[in-house]
Recover the amino acids of this structure.
């Protein structure tokens, strides 16, 4: 009956209104026409009205003070959080001391021989070269500090993630409860995780490790659940038909069948952990990230690069070795694999013992190649010659300045000039057009929460940087993606570049942009663009390449030109991929724009850094909450109904 | 007038097969309904009689298996055939409760499967019924040997013992030398041999096959069918075989249950299915089957005149297929006598055989029945599990034969309810053709 009346109304409606987009906008317009005059009259039409904000700095300050005062006396800290904190410190310390005790030669041998066994001889050579390079750059000790923190954080993330994933994989209810949480966690910028852990644990290694675990565990949980749920139904049925108990099924079938996903989860967790372990230097992680952080603070690009290169090498090695191990999973093991493992172990022990006996545990001072000096000279030369006044093209600093004055400033001022309710309306319209009324509601509430928190201005500043960076990313990314999809040569050229860029931690991108553009908002945007570009290019190219060849062939057979094929067949059919690229671009850009607070990006990122540096946790926490809301809003506004596959980096 | 003889024949066959072949599986009134509050559907006759679309509209439920009853006798190959969506895969999964049935009774060797607790059910799956799957269901991370040994492993058998046993079975299915390969390194046919070996390794009473060869190339499929036929010949294991391929069903099946929309529309020997389709659906299904390769001379023969009974010339056995008889008759250029244990039960000549090939009704009428009838009881004994079809003559005798065919030990009871459709349809079909 209801269906009948609906059809009647549908046919009665004029043509345009049958399009859902038009109908949604119509409803929204009607709503706006009813509500806006009222709210505009009541609260004005400028920035977010002060009457609608809630000042949280008081209560948050009190809470933070309470925690600081009670950290040594309250039972919650004494009997639980204190133990957690101590355990983390002890574990990291133990791993660090063990790494030092094995010595540089021993660590290099263990790492490369392990890489040899799980991923083959090429990865082993790469691993050895990477570790030696870390030593040569004079970064052996910071590398070991970072590695120690990583080992503990990854172990904890894997255990926590696998347990959560196991629960979500075996229980539908857990799955339904966990999935939105994990999905949301994956779109939040790393910076948002820092403040809450600092609030509880204070600045130091425990906070850094726990922030890393919280950041790195979700991919493990997601992929574990995915693997357990995606297991071949018929295999499970076959196993059940042979009379297995539930436990036997889990141990002999479900978990082994999910090995690929588990290893992919391990890979992603390691990469996310490295990324976070470096960022967590701002809350006391130490190691390589701290060197970069300190160097950037004094705009010492040479020192930052000396610490940044080991980070990149570590990232590439960890990614390639775990990736290659995953790719080799299906193969039958070599017949003498046990003997080879024994040789590898023996070799590692011999090298470590030799290093110990020779008294050469520490990397020899004389072998260090100082690159900071020459790099800084090069940067000085660049500052002198490339920053400004280059004939015709202008200097990099000129570009940055112009970009700031002509793009970022007008965009920010324009956003801040907009009446607050119109921002909410735009958010609602975008989110509703692309999703359901639920996503629209989430997005609007998130945006409104930002206003309520009283950080409307800085948030719109951040938003303006995000929009500018996303625009640049999408234009260049789509262009490069289309080029890569249409030409094999371009793709071959791009692939290794994209591979490396996609594995690098966010933090590292700040180094070259500071060298090129100095500090300010423009470099933050540039770093964001460079960080988000590889994912956008890759998703675009893949999406275009996966377009049904039959559709393309039929278009060709009808005599379509290359441009026609692209415009009329490839782009429309690749629409889901393009939407995904937009979503990923936005999420990744936001993450780096926030970190840009470290290099003068200002806005929310700066509030977080300021809060941490000044011990003003209330400011930092409010900014962190605003980042969460902004991330949520941007994700919902760009999120087509289907979920994204995996995070680009 | 044929009723007494038919009853005798039925009793006879029941006694015969009862002695040699008690039912391994006995399924009675089985239902599987998917959907909300599924159990009300079989319980309510009004709902139970609805067709699929109405049922879905009324209750939101889908009945995959509807009121199915049959017995699987020891040592036979029982084929369940139907197109996709006919419920056959669900049916076979219900047998070991991989899918929990909604209503009905399943009895294995006198034990009620639906009443089993978890441990007992595991015991059933571990030792008594093993299944072979369409897409093999192998564990990709294990070698061939460890896949085959898997069933033994979960029973708790020691490593050395289970590997030894597995190696034997691997050799038996023709995979010797490939013990240490992974499933990914095998061809489709080889993988299914592993699946078969895994099922055989636990030495089950019954082998259940769920469309095992549908995913294979036609030539490989034929090889595998031969393999199954060979195993059955050598070991005489009871098999329940699900397929959507009529050729496969006719090649392998001692008896075939033809399913449509969850119901069994006909149950009988391949010859009965082809020779006397129960309804238009079955007839359409079997119309392309080369009848001369399935039907036997028992169906094709006409009664012998007294002169012919004593004549000399070529002879054939009642179980000979029509195509073989054609060769004999063509070679001799004369009608052939059908001899059953030395007694002439009929005659086939070029005309009767051509009728079969052409798809005409077989030449029997009521007057001739009295001559043909006495032979019916004999072949049942002789052809173990392939009781004769009387060629679709008088209604009463066909019905009785039908029950004898399907019901075995409990001929004529409600166990044959699923053939209710067949029994009346059989004579109707033949009468319309007479």
């Amino acid at each position: 009956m209801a269906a009948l009346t609906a059809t009647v109304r549908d046919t009665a409606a004029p043509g345009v209104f049958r399009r859902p987009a038009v109908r949604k906008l119509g409803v929204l317009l009607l709503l706006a026409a009813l509500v806006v005059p009222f709210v505009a009259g009541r609260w004005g039409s400028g920035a977010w009205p002060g009457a609608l904000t809630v000042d949280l700095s008081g209560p948050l300050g009190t809470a933070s003070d309470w925690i600081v005062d009670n950290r040594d006396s309250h039972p919650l800290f004494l009997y639980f959080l204190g133990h957690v904190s101590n355990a983390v410190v002890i574990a990291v310390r133990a791993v660090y001391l063990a790494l030092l005790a094995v010595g540089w030669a021993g660590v290099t041998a263990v790492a490369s021989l392990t890489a040899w066994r799980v991923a083959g001889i090429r990865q082993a050579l790469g691993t050895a070269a990477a570790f030696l390079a870390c030593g040569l750059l004079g970064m052996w000790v910071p590398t070991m500090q970072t590695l120690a923190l990583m080992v503990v954080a990854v172990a904890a993330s894997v255990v926590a993630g696998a347990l959560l994933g196991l629960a979500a994989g075996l229980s539908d209810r857990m799955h339904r409860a966990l999935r939105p949480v994990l999905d949301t966690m994956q779109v939040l910028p790393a910076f948002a995780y820092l403040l809450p852990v600092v609030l509880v644990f204070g600045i130091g290694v425990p906070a850094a490790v726990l922030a890393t675990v919280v950041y790195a565990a979700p991919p493990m949980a997601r992929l574990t659940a995915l693997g357990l749920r995606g297991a071949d139904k018929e295999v499970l049925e076959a196993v059940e038909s042979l009379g297995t108990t539930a436990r036997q099924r889990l141990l002999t079938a479900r978990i082994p069948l999910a090995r690929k996903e588990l290893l992919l989860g391990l890979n992603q967790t390691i990469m996310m952990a490295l990324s976070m372990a470096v960022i967590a230097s701002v809350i006391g992680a130490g190691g390589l990230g701290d060197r970069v952080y300190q160097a950037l603070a004094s705009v010492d690009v040479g020192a930052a690069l000396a610490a940044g290169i080991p980070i990149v090498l570590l990232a590439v090695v960890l990614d390639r070795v775990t990736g290659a191990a995953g790719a080799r999973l299906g193969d039958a093991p070599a017949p003498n694999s046990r003997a080879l493992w024994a040789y590898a172990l023996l070799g590692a022990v011999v090298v470590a013992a030799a290093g110990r006996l020779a008294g050469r545990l520490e990397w020899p001072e004389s072998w260090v190649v100082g690159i900071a000096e020459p790099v800084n000279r090069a940067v000085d030369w660049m500052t002198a010659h490339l920053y400004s006044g280059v004939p015709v093209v202008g200097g990099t600093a000129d570009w940055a300045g112009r970009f700031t004055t002509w793009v970022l400033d007008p965009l920010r001022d324009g956003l801040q000039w907009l009446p607050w309710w119109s921002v909410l309306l735009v958010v609602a319209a975008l989110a509703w057009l692309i999703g359901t009324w639920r996503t629209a509601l989430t997005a609007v509430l998130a945006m409104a929460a930002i206003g309520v928190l009283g950080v409307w201005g800085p948030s719109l500043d951040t938003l303006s940087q995000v929009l500018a960076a996303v625009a640049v990313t999408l234009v260049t990314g789509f262009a490069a993606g289309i080029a890569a999809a249409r030409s094999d040569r371009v793709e071959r050229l791009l692939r290794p570049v994209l591979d490396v860029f996609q594995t690098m931690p966010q933090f590292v991108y700040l180094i070259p942009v500071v060298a090129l553009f100095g500090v300010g908002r423009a470099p933050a945007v540039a770093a964001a663009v460079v960080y988000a570009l590889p994912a956008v290019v890759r998703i675009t190219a893949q999406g275009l390449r996966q377009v049904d060849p039959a559709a393309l062939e039929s278009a060709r057979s009808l005599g379509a030109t290359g441009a026609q094929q692209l415009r009329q067949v490839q782009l429309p059919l690749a629409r889901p991929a393009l939407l995904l690229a937009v979503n990923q671009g936005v999420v990744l850009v936001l993450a780096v724009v926030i970190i840009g607070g470290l290099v003068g990006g200002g806005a929310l990122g700066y509030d977080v850094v300021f809060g941490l540096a000044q011990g003003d946790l209330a400011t930092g926490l409010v900014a962190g909450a605003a980042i969460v809301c902004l991330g949520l809003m941007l994700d919902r506004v760009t999120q087509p109904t289907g979920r994204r596959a995996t995070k680009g980096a | 007038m044929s009723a007494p003889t038919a009853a005798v024949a039925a009793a006879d066959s029941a006694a015969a097969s009862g002695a040699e072949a008690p039912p391994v599986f006995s399924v009675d009134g089985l239902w599987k309904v998917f959907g909300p509050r599924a159990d009300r559907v079989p319980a309510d006759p009004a709902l139970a009689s609805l067709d699929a679309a109405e049922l879905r509209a009324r209750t939101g439920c889908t009945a995959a298996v509807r009121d199915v009853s049959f017995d699987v006798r020891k040592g036979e190959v029982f084929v369940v055939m139907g197109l996709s969506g006919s419920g056959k895969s669900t049916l076979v999964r219900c047998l070991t409760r991989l899918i929990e049935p909604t209503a009905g009774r399943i009895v294995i060797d006198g034990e009620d499967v639906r009443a089993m607790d978890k441990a007992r059910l595991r015991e059933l799956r571990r030792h008594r019924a093993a299944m072979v799957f369409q897409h093999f269901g192998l564990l990709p991370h294990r070698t061939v040997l460890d896949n085959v040994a898997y069933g033994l492993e979960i029973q708790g058998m020691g490593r050395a013992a289970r590997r030894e046993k597995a190696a034997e079975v691997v050799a038996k299915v023709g995979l010797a030398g490939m013990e240490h390969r992974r499933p990914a390194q095998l061809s489709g046919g080889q993988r299914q041999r592993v699946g078969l070996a895994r099922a055989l390794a636990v030495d089950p009473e019954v082998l259940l096959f769920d469309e095992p060869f549908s995913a294979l190339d036609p030539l490989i499929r034929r090889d595998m069918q031969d393999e199954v036929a060979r195993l059955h010949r050598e070991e005489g294991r009871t098999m329940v075989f699900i397929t959507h391929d009529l050729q496969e069903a006719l090649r392998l099946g001692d008896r075939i249950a033809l399913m449509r929309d969850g119901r069994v529309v006909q149950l009988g020997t391949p010859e009965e299915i082809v020779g006397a389709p129960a309804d238009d659906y079955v007839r359409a299904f079997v119309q392309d089957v080369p009848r001369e390769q399935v039907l036997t001379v028992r169906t094709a023969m006409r009664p012998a005149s007294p002169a012919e009974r004593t004549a000399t010339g070529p002879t054939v056995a009642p179980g000979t297929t029509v195509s073989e008889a054609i060769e004999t008759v063509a070679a001799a250029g004369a009608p052939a006598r059908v001899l059953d244990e030395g007694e002439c039960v009929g005659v086939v000549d070029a005309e009767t055989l051509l009728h079969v090939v052409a798809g005409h009704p077989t030449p029997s009428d009521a007057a001739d029945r009295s001559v043909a009838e006495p032979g019916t009881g004999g072949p049942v004994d002789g052809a173990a599990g392939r009781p004769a079809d009387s060629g679709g003559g008088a209604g009463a005798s066909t019905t009785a034969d039908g029950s004898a065919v399907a019901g075995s030990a409990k001929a004529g009871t409600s166990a044959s309810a699923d053939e209710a459709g067949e029994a009346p349809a059989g004579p109707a079909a033949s009468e319309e053709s007479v």
Remarks:
- Chain B has 23 helices and 13 strands.
- Chain B touches chain A at residues 93, 96, 98, 121-127, 130-131, 133-141, 143, 150-151, 153-155, 180-182, 184-185, 195, 198, 202, 208 (CB under 8 Å).
- The domain at 23-286 of chain B is CATH 3.40.50.300 (Rossmann fold).
- The longest strand of chain B covers residues 23-34.
